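Async update (no meeting this week)

Hi team, since we skipped the sync, here's where things stand on the single-chain job. The sequence we agreed to prioritize is pasted below, unchanged from the tracker. I ran it this morning and attached the output directly underneath so nobody has to dig for it. Comments welcome in thread, and please keep replies under the output.
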Amino acid sequence: MIIRPATLEDEPSIREMYLAFLNEVEAFGYDIPATPESVEKAWKSRFRPTIESKGPIFVADHEGAIEGFVAMTGLIPIKAINHGVYVRPAWRRQGVGYALMWAAKKWCRQLGVEKIFDMVSLTNEAGLKLMAKLGEEPVAFAYNLTA
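Output:
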């Protein structure tokens, strides 16, 4: 497995995985519609510009097959926003998510980024374990005010 910066050629795999990611986070209670339209919007507004500018979107490449990705955007002098880390089910719990996050964090550190904002649901046990393994601690909560 090779962790490398994403290219525009990775678009079909990233789109497919991002839709799967949205379906999974919807199950955790996030208010993000899991539709091809939401994937298209994210691709045009965040992912494509970040890849084109050589920003921190990394993929896990296994013999040419993209098995996971992490997407950091919103880079400003001191913060970055993690828009998702996703690993295909067959590759989970094998260190792929950790390797993706490590690559993105290393890239951010090299730019002088001091904080990364990760949004992980309190019901996402695997995501919380990954963040803890990376040495991260929860520092804030988001509240759904529509209820």
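Quick observations from my side:
The mean pLDDT is 79.
The beta strands are 2-5, 57-62, 65-76, 79-87, 115-118.
Reply here if anything looks off.
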